[in-house]
Structures are given as C-alpha cells and as structure tokens.
Amino acid sequence: MSRKKDKARWATAIMSPDELFNMKKMALLREAGQAFRRKGFHNTSMDEVAAALNVTKPALYYYMKTKQEILFECHQFAFDLADQAKQTAWEASEIGIERLRILLEKYIELLTSTLGSCAVLLEPLSSLSPGHQKIVLKRFRDFDRLMKDLVQQAIDEKSIPPQDPRLTVGFFMGALLHITSWYDVEGARTGKEIAQAYGRFVLNGLKGGSPEPANSSDI
Amino acid sequence: MSRKKDKARWATAIMSPDELFNMKKMALLREAGQAFRRKGFHNTSMDEVAAALNVTKPALYYYMKTKQEILFECHQFAFDLADQAKQTAWEASEIGIERLRILLEKYIELLTSTLGSCAVLLEPLSSLSPGHQKIVLKRFRDFDRLMKDLVQQAIDEKSIPPQDPRLTVGFFMGALLHITSWYDVEGARTGKEIAQAYGRFVLNGLKGGSPEPANSSDI
DNA sequence: CCTACCGATCGGTAGG
DNA sequence: CCTACCGATCGGTAGG
C-alpha cells in the first residue's frame, strides 16, 4: 500500500503488496486443488500443502482462514470456469446444440488448463461447512438447470430427437467431471484434443436419441 | 426394543451361524457403502454406520477388522460386479460392439441394484492402505485394458470408426462411474432405464468416431 | 453386543 | 513466516 514507491527497485517489487498477496493465495489454491483432486480432501494435510509450497503450515493461515475455506474456493473456481464457458458459448451462437457443444468444449479446455488446477469437482459436498454447502449446491443446481434447458432447446429445434434432458445431462456431465480425476498435463493428450473428442462423443450420442421422450417430471 | 429381537430370532433361526454372520457382514457393507457414496469415506464415522444398523460401534469390529477394510471390500465388490457383467457379455455375443453394449448395460443394472449399494467407485485410492491400493489398482488396470481391447476390437470389426481407445474408454467410464453419485432408488428412473439410455448414448457416440486414429501409445 | 476409554492424527493458534 | 503447542475428532480396544 504505502510501499508502491519502491516499485522501481527490483523485478519482484513491481508487484504491489496486494498483487503479491493474491499471487500467493492463487498458488496456494492451485497446489491445494491439485492435491485434493489427486488424493482427496481428507487425505491431504495442510502440512503437505505447505511443504509443496516450501513453507510451514502456519504460513498458509495468513492467506486462508480454514482448510474448508480452501476447498470452498476450489469449488467456486470450478463454477467460475463454467460461467466463463457459458459466456463463450452464448457469444458464439444462438443455436441450442451449438451452444451446448461450445460450452462443453470450452469448459474442458479451461479445466485442463493451468488455471483449472484450482477447480475441484468430485469432492462430496459433506466436506464443506453447511453454509458453504448451500452456496455450492445452488450454483450446481443453476448450472444443471442451464444444461437441461439447453438440451430441451436442442430438442425443440429438432437438432436431436426427444429424450429425457435429466438423463442426458447426467450422462455427459459425469463424463466431463471425471476428466479432472485422470487428466495429466504430461499425458499424451492436450486439453484441446480431449475437449474436441468429448464434444464429438456427446453430440453424436445425443443425436442417436433415447427411446423415452421427456415427461412432466423430467425438467 | 427387546421385542424386536424376539421377532428376529424366529426369522433368522433357520440360518446357520455362518449364514447369519455373512448376512450381517453384508448388511454392514451395504450400509457403509451407501454412506461412503453419499458423504464420502472420511465424512462417514463408524458411529454413524453403527447407528444406521441399530448397534454400537464396537459391535462392527466383530465383522470387520478396520474401517479401511470395509472400504476395500466395497471396492472389491465393484470389480466383482464388473466381472459379472463381463461374464454376461461374453456369453451373449462374440462381436466387440455387442459385448461392449451388454457389458455396460449389465454393469449399470448391477450397480443400481440392491446388491450394488456395496460398490464404491469414486473414492480416491489414497483412502486405502498401500497393500489394498495395489490390489485395487491392478483390478482397475485389468478392467481398463479389457475395455480398451473391446473398443479396439469394435474398430477392427468396422463397427465404429478408428479412434483412440483410451479417450473413448475414459469418456464412457466417467459417465458410468458417476451414476453411483446421483442414482437414487426412489428416483424417477429405474436402473434398467438408465442402463439402456446410457447404452445408446455410448454406442451412438462411438459410431460418430473421433478424428484422431489410435497411435502406438494409445493401448 | 455394550460401556468406558485410550491414542494418533491433524486442523488451527500463540507468540515472536 | 517459523517454533512450539493445544484440542477435538474418531478409529480402535479392553473387559465384561
């Protein structure tokens, strides 16, 4: 804050204290998020996260109040990326099936990017405090509704045959969420390749349709 | 309280002690497995599992040596059901794509059945002891290999266009595994309906193919 | 199968 | 940002 005048001196000093704080906080979230994905929230101790960042555990508590709060931010991050993917899809097209494909592909690309390491998708809600659970559950439901509406729109536009949007969304969201559990940056496939392959799988799958058309309790 | 036991005494008296022991052990596995699925392994205490069975915690340790062992058996159970599904598929056909469809549908039906409550699929391996991890990892790899071979067979038989079996299997197995996290016996869909819908999604999805043919590092 | 209890792990804090 | 430490939870056991 009052240190801004030191700005000129060293390379690292070009960051304001605020920027530095946020950089470190993000580094903490990334490191923790990766560990949570790989080993699970409860199998990851704060000591391990600290060691990965070359500091001791108490240092982490300068950036985050509790371990649960870290997990909460990782969840929020996952939804922020989803919102970003939605934004991209909405700007690109008005056709339901097109929006669906772009949203899915963009979301996969974001989840497999460096930024995406913060996102945690497979941890049970019970690991969060009740207050945080409510917030995450609402965002989940909103997103789920968005996807089901998109599927319904694609049906209405005759892009895909009648089917139960709930089953459809459950199907491809399961596939998508699971990427975070096996995706490896060093792996044979880039995020973009995975995104395109999944986009095709999903689109072709839905075009085949399912025998049970949507009924009143489906949306 | 003590009247309940009288009732049980007659009903269970026809069972040998061994059968009784196994029934109770299975009840324990089912109750624990369901809780693990819903809330996660570490968010489920032995006290809770015991309470759900109307006994106290120490009673459970007559049937299982440790909590980790319960989780291990839940994992084993998941693979036992997979083997059973494979058996069904192998008996029904010799065509790759047919075996694939039957295996998937059968597995989903088993996972959504009463028996399937024992199966745990989304818990990180780190929750298990190192010895158990090795065993589960081997079974996972064997099953993964089986599925990739099946996809490759379907490609060779021209049932589906050339594609990377690793991506393909990752895709539909992700979708399948996730069913256990949202499936509700009281829900709108029966296990068979889900199985058939997923079978179609997958088959249609793979028939569309992916642009990248398999390369040397894909199997 | 229960009452009573132990002991390790680990999240979080005090104080500097 | 570190050293030292506390306290709650919870898996597991003793003994009956």
Shape of chain A: elongated
Taking the sheet with the most strands of chain A, its summary is:
none
Report the total helices of chain A. 8
Contiguous low-pLDDT stretches of chain A (5 residues minimum) are: 1-6, 213-219
As an assembly, this protein is: homodimer
* Head-to-tail CA distance between termini of chain A: 51 Å
Class of secondary structure makeup of chain A:
mainly alpha
Largest interface: A-B, 50 and 50 residues
Q: Roughly what percent helix of chain A?
A: 55-70%
Strand content of chain A: under 5%
Walk me through this protein's architecture:
The structure is a homodimer of 219-residue chains. Chain A has 219 residues and is an all-alpha fold. Chain A has eight helices and no strands. The relative contact order of chain A is 0.11. The first copy, chain A, is 63% helix and 0% strand. In chain A, α1 (17-39) crosses α4 (67-92), α4 runs parallel beside α6 and α5 runs antiparallel to α6. Mean pLDDT of chain A is 90; it is low at 1-6 and 213-219. The first copy, chain A, is elongated. The first copy, chain A, has helices spanning 17-39, 46-52, 57-60, 67-92, 96-111, 130-156, 165-182, 191-208. The longest helix of chain A has 27 residues, at 130-156. The first copy, chain A, binds a DNA duplex (16 and 16 nucleotides) through residues 45-47, 55-59, 61-62, 65-67.
